[in-house]
Structures are given as C-alpha cells and as structure tokens.
Design goal:
By secondary structure, this protein is mostly helical. The protein contains 24 helices and no strands.
Length: about 600
C-alpha cells in the first residue's frame, strides 16, 4: 500500500495539480501561450528523466509513478498547443502526441510496467476534459482519441495488459458522450459517424470476448442517435455494422457472436421506426430490412458449408430471424400496402422452402443437415398457413388451407415423411374448425343464396375433395382414416345446410321446424344407407361402420327428438321413411351375409 498504491495516487494527483495550475495560469494571463506549452513540456520531460535515473538506482515502483505523470503532462502540453492556442499546425501537434505515445510504450515495455502505460493513458484521456475551453475541433479531438485507443489496445495485446482495455473503452464512451452532449450539430454527422465506426472497428477486433458485444451495442446506439428519422442513411450503416459484427464473431469463432448484431440491429431499428413521424419510404426501408434478414439467414448454411458445427443457437436464430423480419415487414406494409401482406408471407415461405431443399440435398450421409432443413420447411409451412388469412378473407382462407394441407399430404406420402403428413392433419383440423364455426354461417338468411349453387357449398366441396385426396395418397393408418372420416362429416353437414336452406325458402314459416327436422333425418338415413352399400360393394369396412353409425344416430334422433318435436304429419313421414331405409339396410346385410362372414373370418385368421 505504502509503496505501490500511494505512488500511483501521488502521480495522478501531481498530474491533476499540474493541469489545474496550467488552467489557472491561462485564465489569469500569467504567462503567454508559448511559455505555458514549453513549461508543460519541460515538466513532463524532467519527470521522465528523473524516473529513468530512479529506475536505474533501484527505485523501480517509485519511478513508474513519476514516468506516468510526466507522460500525462506531455499530453497536456501538446494537446493545448493546437487544440486551444493554435500554436502548431494540426500535423505537428498530432506528430508530437504520437511521439509521446510511442515514448510511453517504449518506457512501459522497457520497464515492463503496466502502471506507466495506465497512468500515461489516463492522463491522455483526461486532458481534453481538464483543458476544455468550449471550442470544438472534432477532427483533431477524435483523431487524438483514436491514437490513444490504438496505443492502449496494442499494449494490451502485446503484454496481455487487459486492464488497459476497460480503461480505453470507458474513457472513449465518456468523452464521446460528452462531446455529443455539448457540441453535436446536424452538420457534424459525418465526423461523428466516421469516428464512431472507427472506434467500433478498433474495439470489436480486440481479443477480449466482452469488447465485441459492448462495442456492437454502443456503436448501434450512436448510429441511431446520429441518424434519427427521417434519415434513411441509418439503415445501410446499421446493416454494415451488423455484417461486421457477424464477420468478426465468425473469425474469432465465438458461438454466441450473432446475438448482439442481431438483437442490436432489430432493437435499434424498432426505436428508429417508432420515432418516425412522417410518411415512410417503404421501398427503401424494406430493401435494407430484407438485406438484414438475408444476412442473418445466410449464417446457418454458411456454417454448414465450411464444416462448422450447427448448434442450437443457430437454429433458434434461424427461426427468430424469420419471425422478427416478418413482424417488421408487416408493420411497414400496414396500412398503405396491406394488400401485399399475404404475398409477403408467401415470399418468405418460398425463401425458406428453397433453403430447406438446398440443405436437404447437400446433407449427404451426414445427418447434420436434416434438422436445419426440417426447420426451414416448418418455417415455410407456418408462413404458408399465415398467408391465407392475410391475403384472403372469408371462405378463401378455408380453401387455401385445404389445398395447402392436401399438398403437404401428397409430399409427405411421396417422400415417406410422416412429419409432413402430421402437419397436414393439423391444418385439416383448422379447416374443419373454419367450416363448422365460420363458413357454415356466411349467409344471414336462406334467401341470400341458391341451393347447391353458392360459395358455401363450393367451399365445402373443395375441402371434402382435399380430405379425400389426402386419404387416398396416405392410403393406410390413422393418417388416412382421419381425413376420410372428416370428408364425410363435412359433406354431410354441407348437405344438411342445403336441405335446411331449401326448406326455409319453400315452406311456410309455421312448418319450417318440422319439415327441417324430418328432412334432416331422412337425409342422414339416406347417407348412411349409401355408405353401407358402398362398403358392401367395395369391400371397404370403414364405409359400412360409418353408415351403421350414422343410421344409429338417426334412430336416436328420431326416438329422442323428432317424436316429440315434429308435427303429426311429418312424424308419420319421418318414421315411415326411416323404417323403409332400415329394412333396406337389413336386406343388404342379409343378401351379402356370406361375403361379410368371409371377410370376418379372413380378418380373424389374419389376426
């Protein structure tokens, strides 16, 4: 404590005392500008020379403090010579400060003393604040700061003096923020942006892992502050910054390196977008957002093509990148270009589908390409499903989903990929939900449409055809049974709606309920009989089971509901018709008894 820390604190205190005296002498006009500068140079050189003699005499720790203080005072003198008094041209002042930096480096390396480098740099960073007169020389000030940063990071790399990195980073942050607060004007955007990117390049390329995300974050903050709306210039700068962050991270082989470029770009874009109060140039903004989306999308295939291991983070980035880009594009298109939102989703689906095909085709014998390819296909499917409600309305959504599900079922069956078939079944569940909960009630009254020649019945027919096509392609198992049964349920419900509509249009108001109940019962019985007959003549047991089940429902409806609700005449018709249909069903089973028993025997033998 007595030797080392008091020495360091004493050296820093001496530097501050010299700076305060220097400033006080300036304010009171004690000596002229040249005398002030020469006095500072003389003190700095004297301290450095004394430190060298003390070092040779064995006072090594003590000499470090004196040397650091002398170097800091030299920064004071040379910075003031141009920055405040204009006694020297810019080139000469900068050359002298460069020589001071080189001298500090030589002495710190010669003595292997981190303290000399730290004290000298700390004095250098403090000089612009201590000698501030309110004048602004941004190119000189930022160049001076860049020189100090380069020296600090160079020494840190050469001797692994990692303590110099937070010193340089923190000092740069404080000085840049102070300059922005006091001196920034719109006409100074060029110099502020140039040096913000220069500092970013310097710190981001440093080996310490924390410097890349920290510099990425602060550089993004600087750009969005300097180029607030309506300056679209922010977007290409932010895109270039993200590309640089990805490239540096990949060069350093840091698996989490894309996190900050990705999060920084989209977070600062969101704040920039929300701050826009004028009409946005949608085309330009969307172009640069697309560039960012493709930049982050390309990382995963690039990793695979150069033989890198694809970790979980890369897969998460692939999915989140798609979601964030779609959200940003959707917000940008709303409300002026809302008609393009569905096409936007379809375009994203196509991009991911093509990428998935490429990854799948190049996976070879390695399984590592299968999971990214499946993820791409899943993302494409999500956007396809989302495109229908965005681009269409009403019954068109149901048709689009039904056709998408049929296409997935065909692809999954052809490629023996059961996952795609399961996804198709999920979409079919959505189709059923829309058919029964939304599309069934698209007409407010029966007078609003014609029987069988209307959009509702057409929607049901398209869905039924899709269901049965999927069942035909899948052929066997639950994956085939579910869409086949759903197709019959949808077709029967569509016919029920048509019958009810026909009754409403053609019956007296007082008879509508009775005629509808009777007609629906007869329709269900006829449909059940048709299924039984189809099952008997095609040897397809599912049709027979469905037919018998439907007839059973009709019987329950007749005895639990119709017998109490139908008027007397319609009750007679319903019971008579159903009785005839039941007898017909029984005759079919009696006539084909031998065939049914042979089927049953063969099934038992098979089991």
């Amino acid at each position: 404590m007595g030797l080392t820390w008091i020495n360091r604190i004493g050296a820093l205190t001496l530097f501050l005392g010299a700076a305060f005296f220097f400033k006080y002498a300036v304010d009171n006009q004690w000596i002229g500008p040249w005398a002030r500068v020469l006095l500072g140079i003389a003190i700095g050189l004297s301290l450095a020379a004394s430190a060298d003699r003390l070092w040779r005499g064995g006072h090594r720790v003590y000499a470090q403090g004196l040397c650091g203080a002398g170097a800091a005072i030299l920064y004071l003198a040379f910075y003031a010579a141009f920055g405040f008094y204009q006694l020297l041209p810019r080139e000469a002042a900068f050359g002298l400060m460069l020589a001071t930096t080189i001298a500090i480096g030589i002495l710190s390396l010669r003595y292997n003393a981190l303290a000399i480098a730290a004290l000298g740099l700390l004095g250098g960073y403090a000089t612009p604040i201590l000698l501030s007169t309110g004048q602004d020389q941004p190119w000189f000030f930022f160049s001076y700061l860049l020189l100090l940063n380069a020296a600090a990071l160079g020494w840190a790399e050469l001797r692994e003096w990692r303590h110099l990195e937070p010193l340089a980073f923190g000092s740069t942050l404080i000085l840049y923020a102070a300059w922005f607060h006091q001196h920034f004007l719109p006409e100074k955007r060029l110099v502020a942006t140039s040096f913000a990117l220069a500092y970013y390049a310097l710190f981001a390329a440093a080996p310490s892992p924390w410097l890349l995300p920290a510099s990425q974050l602060l550089a993004g903050l600087a750009l969005v502050t300097l180029w607030a709306p309506p300056h679209v210039t922010y977007l290409p700068l932010a895109l270039a910054l993200s590309a640089a962050g990805l490239a540096i991270g990949e060069y350093r082989r840091r698996p989490k390196s894309p996190l900050m470029p990705f999060a920084g770009f989209w977070f600062f874009y969101a704040s920039w977008h929300l701050a826009w109060s004028q009409s946005r140039p949608v085309g330009q903004v969307l172009l640069f957002l697309t560039g960012a989306f493709l930049l982050f999308l390309s990382r995963l295939p690039w990793q695979m093509w150069i033989g890198r291991v694809v970790n979980q983070g890369s897969l998460v980035l692939l999915a989140v990148n798609a979601a964030v880009y779609f959200t940003a594009g959707y917000s940008l298109l709303e409300p002026e270009y809302s008609d393009y939102r569905g096409r936007f989703a379809i375009a994203l689906a196509a991009v991911h589908a093509l990428l998935g095909l490429r990854l799948w085709s190049e996976r070879g014998s390695e399984p590592r390409g299968a999971k990214p390819a499946r993820l791409c296909f899943g993302i494409a499917l999500c956007f396809l499903i989302l495109a229908a409600p965005l681009q269409f309305s009403g019954y068109r959504i149901t048709m689009a989903w039904a056709l998408e599900a049929a296409a997935l079922a065909w692809i999954g069956s052809s490629a023996s990929e059961s996952r795609l078939v399961r996804v198709a079944l999920v979409i079919y569940a959505l189709v059923l939900g829309r058919l029964f909960l939304i599309d069934s009630w698209m007409y407010l009254s029966a007078a609003a449409y014609e029987g069988l020649w209307n959009l509702r019945f057409l929607t049901f027919l398209v869905a039924v055809a899709s269901f049965w096509a999927a069942a035909w392609w899948t052929r066997a198992g639950r994956a085939a049974l579910a869409p086949y049964v759903a197709g019959h349920a949808a077709l029967l419900w569509a016919l029920v709606l048509e019958v009810v509509g026909w009754v409403s249009r053609n019956s007296a108001a007082r008879n509508v309920a009775s005629v509808s109940g009777m007609s629906v019962s007869i329709l269900m019985a006829l449909y059940g009989l048709a299924l039984v007959a189809a099952g008997l003549f095609t040897w397809f047991a599912v049709n027979r089971i469905l037919g018998l089940g439907l007839i059973g429902l009709v019987v329950l409806k007749l005895y639990l509901s119709d017998v109490w609700l139908l008027a007397h005449v319609y009750r007679i018709v319903a019971f008579s018709a159903l009785g005839a249909l039941l007898l017909t069903t029984s005759y079919l089973y009696s006539h084909h008894r031998a065939r049914i028993e042979s089927w049953w025997s063969s099934e038992q033998d098979h089991q």
